[in-house]
Description:
Layout: E1 5-7, E2 13-15, H1 16-34, H2 37-44, H3 48-55, H4 58-84, H5 89-106, H6 108-115, H7 125-150, H8 158-178, H9 183-199, H10 203-206
Antiparallel strand pairs: 1-2
Helix pairs in contact: 1-2, 1-4, 1-6, 4-5, 4-6, 4-7, 5-6, 5-8, 5-9, 7-8, 8-9
DNA-binding region: 36-55
InterPro entries: Homeodomain-like_sf, HTH-type_TetR-like_transc_reg, HTH_TetR
Pfam family, one: TetR_N
Amino acid sequence: xxxxxxxxxxxxxxxxxxxxxxxxxxxxxxxxxxxxxxxxxxxxxxxxxxxxxxxxxxxxxxxxxxxxxxxxxxxxxxxxxxxxxxxxxxxxxxxxxxxxxxxxxxxxxxxxxxxxxxxxxxxxxxxxxxxxxxxxxxxxxxxxxxxxxxxxxxxxxxxxxxxxxxxxxxxxxxxxxxxxxxxxxxxxxxxxxxxxxxxxxxxxxxxx
Length: 208
């Protein structure tokens, strides 16, 4: 998403990302239902008419925020998986876990809105599932590319394995956040879990 600008009556120029950052913070603290356009405008240092003109009504602003977070996350995943396609398994598992845990640590508000919105009554469920499915597809592709270099051939179970890896990562990440744990340590734990799962696969029982 390009960072477009708007000049307020006071002469200050607002980057679109600045407006979205303010909206993200308000939605994260208040939840969608309680958040007010006036609160977002105040946090951004702008006016309600500016927000309506640039981003639309509250629902549209919320979707702008969550979609931007989804774009950022998918970009991080794509970059990591591109780097990981030729790595040995131990390094691949670490690289594969890194985007989610980094996103949770560096963009906590975005992570919570995108993946945990239901905890505050917000339900961007379709977009959340779209993001998860996209990551599963990217990881499936990565697993298949890695097979060409290192084996083994997982056949039709590659996508199921990718889904399992993504599910483990999300569960470990959320569990750690809920308990105020160390996300770096949690990332390493998830990576080792996935690495061991790959090592211990019984392909004869999994593949048709």
